[in-house]
Design goal:
11 helices; eight-stranded parallel beta barrel; binds phosphoenolpyruvate; alpha/beta; 250 residues
């Protein structure tokens, strides 16, 4: 059975003071969350030592928003998977649509990052999703299958035993627009069916998260869907009350 997961993506937000405040509110508010879901926060990398100190002995996991596809070397500004592991990260986002669009993360690069994360025992959360233009051209599934296939080709289908997939329609990210539960369920079911073509057991057990303007008030409808195993939350994850509210819905 897929594990329930609620993950927060803080993007490029926060100060030392605001992170300490947010983490302390999450620790208090999510003390007993491990029976509900695995909670993960993805912070700007510079705050990860702070998370290691604060979340070190709690059930809340943390990670980075991207990772280099290289081991180490002359890659100015990049962060290696081994470095994240050194700071006890357990998860990492790969292929977030903002990375794909703004930082030239092609499907092949995303696949390399996925492989590199697993090499250092980090669980990748692979983000996939279509733009509005692609949805309107009826290309949603073709685009997502291409994004998945690039990773399957590189890592093999078995790699998804230690990975999570987040379906994030680009048109719903940070826009306040959410896919309806039925729209999201339709894509999640199609992702499972696509994976089942490679390995039925992997398809049944991989956690499929939905992302795109998830809030406590729309989470109920989304989490009622059979193939939605949790959420990747952007904006609302910066507000402790809203994020805890979403965890409580699951
Ligand atoms: C995201 O950044 O992954 C995301 C889903 O953002 P938001 O919840 O703000 O739409």
């Amino acid at each position: 059975m897929p594990q329930k997961i609620i993950a927060g993506n803080w993007k490029m937000h926060g100060t030392k003071a605001s992170v300490v405040e947010l983490v302390s509110a999450l620790r208090t508010g999510l003390e007993d969350s491990s029976s509900l879901a695995q909670v993960i926060v993805f912070a700007p990398t510079v705050f990860i030592p702070l998370l290691e100190a604060e979340f070190g002995n709690s059930d809340i996991a943390y990670g980075a928003q991207t990772v280099s596809e290289y081991n180490e070397g002359a890659y100015t500004g990049e962060i290696a998977a081994s470095m994240l592991k050194d700071f006890e990260c357990r998860y990492v986002l790969v292929g977030h649509s903002e990375r794909r669009a703004l930082f030239v993360a092609t499907n092949e690069k995303v696949a390399e990052k996925f492989v590199q994360a697993q090499k250092y025992d980090l669980t990748p959360i692979l983000c996939v999703g279509e733009t509005l233009k692609q949805r309107e051209a009826n290309e949603t599934l073709a685009i997502i299958e291409k994004q998945l296939k690039a990773v399957i080709d590189k890592a093999g289908i078995a790699a998804f035993r230690n990975a999570v997939i987040a379906y994030e329609p680009v048109w719903a990210i940070g826009t306040g627009e959410t896919a309806s539960p039925e729209q999201a369920q339709g894509v999640h079911a199609a992702i499972r069916a696509f994976l089942a073509g490679f390995d039925a057991d992997v398809a049944t057990n991989v956690s499929l998260l939905y992302g795109g303007s998830v809030k406590p008030d729309n989470a109920t409808g989304l989490f009622a869907m059979v193939d939605i195993d949790g959420a990747l939350v952007g904006g609302a994850s910066l507000d402790a009350e809203k994020f805890i509210g979403i965890v409580n819905v699951i």
